[in-house]
Design brief:
The structure holds two protein chains of two kinds. The termini of chain A are far apart. By secondary structure, chain A is mainly α. Helices cover about 45% and strands about 10% of the residues of chain A. Chain A has helices at about 1-15, 35-40, 40-55, 65-75, 85-90, 100-120, 130-155, 190-205, 220-235, 240-250, 285-290, 305, 345-360, 370-380, 395-405, 410-415, 440-445; strands at about 30-35, 80, 165-170, 185-190, 275, 300, 320, 330, 340-345, 420, 425. Chains A and B meet through helix 1, strand 1, helix 2, helix 3 and helix 6 of A and helix 1, strand 26, strand 27, strand 28 and strand 32 of B. Strand 1 (about 30-35) of chain A pairs antiparallel with strand 32 (about 670-675) of chain B, so a sheet runs across the interface.
Chain lengths: ~450, ~1000
Amino acid sequence: MKKLKLIAGTLFLSAFLFTACDGLLDTTPKQSIDATEALTNAENVKSVLIGAYDAIGGGDLYGGWFLMMPDFLAADDEFDFSGTFFGPRQIRLKEQQYDNANATGTWIDAYDAINIANSALDGLDLLEGDERDRVEGEAKFIRGLIYFDLVRLYATQYVAGGPNGQAGVPLVLTPTTTIDESSNVARSTVGEVYAQVISDLTDAKSLLSDVNPVRSYYANSMVASAVLSRVYLQMEDYDNARIEADRVIASGNYSLTDTYADAFNNVENSTEDIFSMQVSAQDGANSMFTFYSADSRGDVDINQAHVDEYEAGDDRLNLFYNDPSDGVLRSGKWNDGVNGNVQQIRLAEMYLTRAEANFREGVPYVGADPIDDLNEVRDRVNLPTYTLPTEFDLNDILLERKLELMFEGQLLHDIKRTQGTVGTRSYDDPKLVLPIPRREIDSNPNLCQNASYTGPTC
Amino acid sequence: MMKKLLQLSSCFMLLLFVSVGTLHAQTVSGVVVSAEDNEPLPNITVLVEGTNKGTATNLDGEYELELTSNEFQNGTLVFSGVGFVRQEVAVNGRQTIDIELATDTQLLDEVVVVGFGSIVREDMTGNIASVDSEELSAVPVNSFESALQGKTSGVFIQKSNGKLGQGINIRVRGTSSISASSQPLYVIDGIPVISESQSQTADTNPLADLNVDDIESVDILKDASAAAIYGSRGANGVILITTKSGKAGETRINVSYERGISTETNRVEFLNADEYVELFTEAAERSPFGDLSGSYLENNWFDFFAQGTDWQNREIDTNWQDEAFQDASNTDFGVQISGGTEKTRFFVSGGFSDQIGIIRGNEFNRMNARLNLDHSASDKFEVGMNLGLSRTENIRVSNDNAFSTPLQAIAQSPLSPVYTPQFENGNLTGFSDVPNENTLYYNFLRHVQGVDNNQTVFRNIGNLYANYEISSNLEFRSEAGLDLLFQNEDYFADSNTNVGENTSGYGDSRWVNLVNYTLNNYLTWNQQFNDNHQLTTVAGVTLESSDRYQTFVSGTNFPTDSFRKLASAAEITGGNTTETAYKYLSYFARANYKFSDRYLLSGSARVDGSSRFGENSRYGFFPAVSAGWIISQEDFLSDVEALSFLKLRGSYGLTGNSNVGNFPSRGLYGGTGYAGSSGLVPSQTPNPDLKWERTAQYNIGLDFALFSDRIGGEIDYYVKKTDDLLLNVNVPATTGYTSQLRNVGELENKGFEFVINTQNTTGVFRWNTNFNIAFNKNKVTNLGGQVIEGGFLNRAVEGEPIAVMWGKEYAGVDPDNGDALYYLHSADGKDYDAGTTNDYSIANNVVIGDPNPDFVGGLTNNFNYRNFDLGVLMQFVYGNDIYNGGGRYQSANGDFFDNQTVDQLNRWQNPGDVTDIPEARLFGSNGSNPSSRYISDGSYLRLKSVTLGYTLPQDLLSRLQLRDVRVYMSGVNLLTFTDYEGWDPEVNTDLYDLSNNLNIGNDFYSAPQARTISFGINIGF
């Protein structure tokens, strides 16, 4: 009997011990939400768009390397890179390999931002009316902008009037939900990428209003036009370039700052800023500061050869300063690392674009005579204004553009479209194109590599 | 949860009423004493053979047992106790039986702690390495794992660097995963504890919170049959730590005090000022950018370094290593009190340890308290509690990759003064105490003066248990354990440091609260069926839950450098709180069967459920079987006198690994922000099929003892195959993601372990030796075509050991022109016929190094002569390569102005020179790109510890009224024999996260280990 009791007791106990308690295993993430819940309401879709802005403001994109890599590639005797980071040092020396850390980081972050923009576009059906137009326009602006910079850096130059069948970059236009064979996207042609860029930016231009109703520093129709003017200029489509630049200038929404120095190191957008990445102590990144400023690494050493390119009395010279620690000359464009925005497109560029395009296309000029546009820029920096069209030629316009936009990420692209040179290298030197990153070549069998780098040839 | 607890406790109450009756008959009683010293022996088990009837001796060694009349006439009593030779005595109708028990020197009789129970080593069918408190305390180190180094076969232990309290790498039988952590599971007194680093910078070691003096034994479960009871947590091995408990008897007090001094184990020689000027002048002359010597070099660089001092006459010749290292010391104090009555036993301990590191600015101190209490409420019901409290403070220095870490100072020019020079009429008069701010790189002394970087950990590891003997062969045990870890990292950098200079100071504060609780409930059933069959079974359920909560705040703009807390920060620049959790619910069972004292069979199984995995594969099943044959018990071996013990054993089982993030199977969106507005971004793609990583392991072993146990040993061979690897698979970044966790691929570890223990001499002069060696061969067998990268050059490549170094193979220097050469090889692998090239970019990448050792082990020799004892431990690691990530700066033949190792003086200078160091070319990158040039052999043999002790003689002690006094002198890491070119071959830079299995075999300005000489005294009252 006792034994029976014992066995019964044991069994009883065991029953409790082995009761399945599956519910005990339920835990949910606290800082994240499930993907299936993310795009289920309008508020979240708008938040994803903000996430896309945050992504493009990163140090690898418009917070830094999207601007610095082309400048470093374009540098010959203008400046040296004296820092210890091998990635930028290799790019400055045009010795970059396919595992270059900066070329890799920018590629990864660019496609991350594209995926975020694609996710926002995927949720458009949850929005209505103006709100929907705004989100679609901004997301497409972001996507078009990134593809434009990717195709300029990771593929060879667009050939005006050519078939442009050379390899561009992979075009991904839908958000990633699963990763499988179909994720191994091959490179579209340069022509296809440019077509996508124009389509996205043109959509953005028509969907967005002239002033963004939510935040003044988000994209608007004028920002889309400003970028479109860059795209057309790069394609040597000067007529469209001047039309878009003129649209921005004519809007009257922007004006040049009083002095050249006023255009930089701003905590809030200046009157001249058309689009600028916002940086604060809480978020945003200013990698330009990290590498340019004597207050940070101070790795970009400006040479006399660059200073010699300016005319005497050019106020832009006054922005250079000597590093107190080693006396080396540095650019003062990027000196506020904590709160300073990273400006992307300034009104001055629109004047110069309109001037160049009008100069090349000839009369009837769109908006203004090139001489007036050039004088807008020259007058601000205390340079003598031109009085006769014979006083300048295309080279003067291009030099003006180079000096005005120096260290702002435009030099390489201008050299390529004007078929110039970087030192002894011709504009189509393969080392002036970044490699498709090694991790990408390794993980995607459908990719081909740019000339001079390791990987399957295109 | 609460409901379940109630259910369990009500059930438990019910069981209290279950009782078992006894029959009355004859009584036998007696006293058990030690044969050695005739002292009464408490806690000796007295059993009637063939039954479960028995008792234990009391404090005075007395026992009393009631026997049936049959037992009284024909029965046999079995006397056994830990550390004594078992004795069987026929009762033969005697009412008094006094017994002398001989001390057992046989190692195989030791009790080994296994999951949810313990077993006599003789009966073990799996592989478990054990270390007891005596062996642990023989090495004066601040973490118990360091004390295990070289003592446990098949357990590879590596510290990351010489910083105090820093992360530690432990691999039991090799690395069995690629993306999931390969650190073993730690279990203290039955409760799994937190062992993952909680630091926001370089890894620290949460087990440094333990006081080595509190540990009774460490048992490491290595094979599947031992570890499978821990199921999904068992694939990396399980380290069971048992803390000390009180014994009935007079109160014993132990006081220990130790003081030591330390220096670094090694220095690397760098150029002095003369050599520096010579090398860089030559490098500048030969720069590819033209002759840069003369004014460019002298005005821009040498003058800048010299800061007004006369470098032409080498007025300054700084050895920056002198600045990075400091004289280190440690003080350790401990008190342990134990004792109690038969009903209530206690162990109380307190400890204090204060250490100053060999790296400037590095300190570590710890306070510990422990109370372990056991109470026998009745002869059936026992309750107890183990509670350990600690506070650990680590004053840290920057990570290896920061300019502000002390050892990066070696990159500075020897022409640079350390402190700001003072001049009078142009003559150097001295130096201020302000660090020289105008150095090539940031002067780390600015950090030493201006940064507070303190990590404080408050730890509370405790458990409660209740043990109820339902019947003489059935026991129920319930354990509830809690591991509370509160960690604060307080950081402040004042306005004179590079962190705080642009923002008038920078401060942050981070708190991590981790609460782990565990509930174990299990039944143990022991049954002896007639003489020949013995069965021990255990079955139960365990629930584990872990919650981690973190807060972080950072701020800038402090009024002055005297205000160092965030309350004074004018701007709060960041702040967040995060929380995460995981749970395990598991059912387990094990049966050990022994037949005829020679045939052993064991089986175990565990079903694990984890919140980490998706609905599709939430539960995993982990079975194991093992068998043993004690051949020496067989008649045919009874004549072989020399052979005292021989056992053959084998095991096979499955274990798992789930050491991945908490929500790896879900598709997730995370929060972010832009310009003050909050945003959302996709952060993870879903993988609902994600499941456990599985390791199947078989083990064949032989235990033997010869010549009356004078020689004993173990030989084991194992194969561990892991499949369904939890792999962070590289995916095309065009998806928006760089990797996804998937079950892809396989790897294996095969190995051979050999342990031998010998008593070389006995008597007055005793000499014992332990030698262990373990060979492990790791191979990644299948990665589904993936290549996974880590560290500087590490990779997981199919067909190669994990984390091989992958890159260009350096081929030396072209004697004609001084160019660095690389082997071209081919895209398919090594091909020396392809020749060499001076174009780095066209050389093909090949496997150029393997960071996994071929074998590791240790040799311990203990000598005793009268009152003197001497212990000598040698430890060795063989066959691993180390890549010095700093080599391209430190040994780059004057590529940049970093000071160079002296071997760079041997550079190529003239056509025909034959050397391994290319021509010095400033900014020329001549040979400084990553390659096998910076890989060297990391094998080493180390005199890990030597301890010489003297125990005061008994007559002196009785006069002093002391029980025991021992004084000792000890040395740690006294000698290291190695070809490694860097500071210390025991290295794994903290620049990379240690939980990533690919981050091994890398050095990067990593501090060497400490060489310590200490003196100590132990007094027992």
